[in-house]
Amino acid sequence: MRARLxxxxxxxxxxxxxxxxxxxxxxxxxxxxxxxxxxxxxxxxFDYISADVAGRRLYTPRGGQGGHLGVFNLDTLKPVGDxxxxxxxxxxxxxxxHHGFSNTKPVTMWDSQTLKVIKTIDVDGRPDDIEFDPGTExxxxxxxxxxxxxxxxxxxxxxxxxVDLGGAPEQGANDGKGTLxxxxxxxxxxxxxxxKTMTVTRHxxxxxxxxxxxxxxxxxxxxxxxxxxxxxxPHVVIANADxxxxxxxxxxxxxxxxVAFNPATNEAISAESGGTMTFIKERSPTSFVVExxxxxxxxxxxMVLDTKTGHIFTQTxxxxxxxxxxxxxxxxRPARGPMVPGSFSILEVGK
Length: 351
Hints:
five-stranded antiparallel sheet; mainly beta; disordered N terminus
């Protein structure tokens, strides 16, 4: 009886430790994986992928010849609609007005429920990334040429102003409290923007830590930025958003483009054209580690996080071999031949 009591006491004493260890063991046993590949085909090149989480829609803008806007059910990846002839590299939706916007020139505004084009909006520069701020209900159209940002009233579909960001912008990260951080690719800085006044309040200088800036994500709760750079080697610089102090620097895969931070799991996630996806775990506001490098598929360089399910969506296609004398692609991407017809696919990543 005494032995049984001692054993019971030992189990009770160890129970908290065992409980604390269980999530880590479960997590290690369940890494991220590609859980679904939907070969949806269709013509046109591709760049950004985006989601209307509330409306459960996934958008795959296709550019160039045969360009169109593909619309899919976010839960099943079944096609639910298409806007023929709308060739662009990016799209987003304002869930309040149900107005969609594509980064064409001029910018195209469309109805997300009927998928009918409403109007076009004249902008200068060369539209690239496109961001939405629900707090002001404004669309930020980012350009690698001046003006570096054109701001559009999402409800009215009119230009609210332009903003000089101090260089060529890549991805932005919204803190949900009125501030937008934007990675300035050609300067190695991060522009800090007041969304209400549409002004740059300061720049965070990370130029000594990297060049060729691309993706940017944010842990809004702990004010931590994850700024991704392609040179001299692919890496992420992790910095305090308030002070600019560098907290850590970690390697990533080749060709990072768009990224995200999942506050539910404290993970920074990056999609990479080399065919990988990197997951960085924020173990504490001062401790970070590369948790997993997932093999996806070559060319899958952009991604979007479904904050409802925690699943990540990326896209790519198959390509014929490149000619021997073909120059490298943009941002040092490997040369490739033409896209194999019908091979365009959406990849869903989860556990």
